[in-house]
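lol so apparently i was supposed to do this last week
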Amino acid sequence: MFNLILFGPPGSGKGTQSERLISKYGLKHLSTGDILRAEIAAQTPLGLAAKELMDNGQLVPDEVVIGMINSALDSNPQAGGFLFDGFPRTVAQAEALDKLLAQKGTSIAVVLALQVDEEELVKRLMNRGLTSGRTDDTDENKIRVRFGEYQKKTMPVAEHYKNLDKLVEIKGEGDIDDIFQALSREIDLRNQDRA
Ligand code: AMP
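anyway here it is w/ adenosine monophosphate bound
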């Protein structure tokens, strides 16, 4: 099994690169943001509870997203590996993920962290808001709240995986194909290690 985390701030290109990586490497894509938006669309109690926090740019409680990931892992027993996108976003989530994977006899192979300048991120998110229909992308104040959450709660996740020697930083600005090649190179290095 090959599991990786695509890490980076909102607007760093995780969604775009995830789509390409899952199709190249046959991984199962687990995006907590996508799962939460599907819950909102289906108007489930979980979705209704999460909606206000998401609209404000705040994080949903750890136990909610950890529960979602736990059931997604259980419902994909035949997956060759998972690509985690937008998760883990707190150290508690990272520790829970490490434990869940260990219980299944596997682990995170690598954390690929996309690096993008903050002003470029705001530009990308405002642009995405024009077409995505995502209410959290249209208001610059809410975008800044998401960055605040990222700095305070999510950046320590990079430190967690750096201490485990699993963090690799990749420049997330420039040509989409070049970024994809850089990500693929890091995956290929580690896939071979396992072969
Ligand atoms: P994303 O699509 O990854 O940008 O996530 C959109 C919103 O969903 C975030 O701003 C949070 O409100 C919520 N969310 C997604 N993933 C998580 C997570 N792992 N932990 C807490 N909240 C999350």
